[in-house]
Design a protein that fits this description.
mainly alpha; single chain; about 280 residues
């Protein structure tokens, strides 16, 4: 005779799903991986530039650290690397401490940018004077630092097509281009760097640059029309004109950058709230 044993009710366990949004988590992670790698690349280039100039063993070689291009790259790379690291690892590991650090860094950077923008608009004359002093430093130490030399050549030749701060005469501040340097045998005396020369319409001539095109152009009694050889507009005036021409593009880029930073802060805070909600649910 078969005995029917009472069957035990089968309990169904529903697996608790995570409250953390995977979309939000990996969006923050992926975006900051790019920032992390970008910061690492910029930092590497800056450190490499300093090591090539042997700055680490002799800091006295830098006339003005704040204006040294390699030092600026190191600072930008370090900040970008830290922000990318905290956002990337914080999102991937769901670490609320790193996410809070990431949000704080972005908030401080956002506050700094907005303050700099407002002060820059209010103290335009002071900004202009500081830019003039910085450019004067570049001119004075033109032959002493290859990074500064490449930077000023790029500004004068490729970016603004200008020469000096207010004009070619500003190159008299440099010992090599000063007109009195003829007494010590400088061939560049009373001249300007090749980056002041006007671009040639011929593509081949533009590739094969004439490094001596600026010789003697400021010399009294120069036999050729200087305006056809070099750019006579100063870089300060050229910069103001460039900003006016590109005002809409600059404003758009600024708003996009600010919006992305605000978005990053909001995403980080939302992810932290999700993580805290998940921990509270389990406890």
């Amino acid at each position: 005779m078969a005995v029917n044993l009472p069957t035990m009710p089968v309990r169904k366990y529903r697996r608790e799903t995570s409250e953390v949004s995977s979309c939000l988590k990996y969006m923050i992670f992926g975006f900051n991986v790019l920032f992390w790698l970008l910061g690492l690349g910029i930092l590497t280039v800056g450190v490499w530039a300093w090591s090539e100039k042997d700055i680490f063993n002799n800091l006295g070689k830098v006339a003005n650290v704040a204006l040294d291009p390699a030092f600026i790259l190191i600072c930008i790379g370090t900040v970008t690397f830290i922000i990318g690291f905290t956002g990337c690892v914080g999102a991937l590991r769901e670490n609320t401490c790193l996410l809070a650090t990431y949000a704080i860094f972005l908030s401080v950077l956002l506050l700094f940018e907005m303050t700099a923008g407002i002060l820059g608009f209010i103290f335009k004359d002071w900004i202009k004077s500081q830019a003039t002093i910085g450019f004067q430093t570049f001119i004075i130490h033109y032959r002493e630092d290859p990074d500064q030399q490449n930077l000023i050549d790029w500004i004068q030749e490729d970016w603004l097509q200008c020469c000096g701060i207010e004009g070619p005469k500003d190159w008299d501040r440099n010992n090599y281009f000063n007109c009195s340097s003829r007494d010590v045998g400088s061939r560049e005396a009373c001249g300007v760097p090749f980056s002041c020369c006007k671009r040639k319409p011929n593509f081949l001539q533009e590739i094969i640059k004439n490094k001596q095109c600026g010789y003697d152009v400021r010399k009294p009694g120069f036999n050729f029309d200087v305006s056809k050889i070099i750019n006579e507009k100063g870089c300060l005036e050229a910069t103001e004109e460039w900003i006016e021409r590109n005002m809409i593009s600059l404003a758009t880029c600024s708003f996009v950058i600010l919006f992305m930073q605000i978005l990053g802060i909001c995403f980080a805070q939302n992810l932290r709230a999700d993580i805290f909600a998940q921990k509270a649910k389990w406890h």
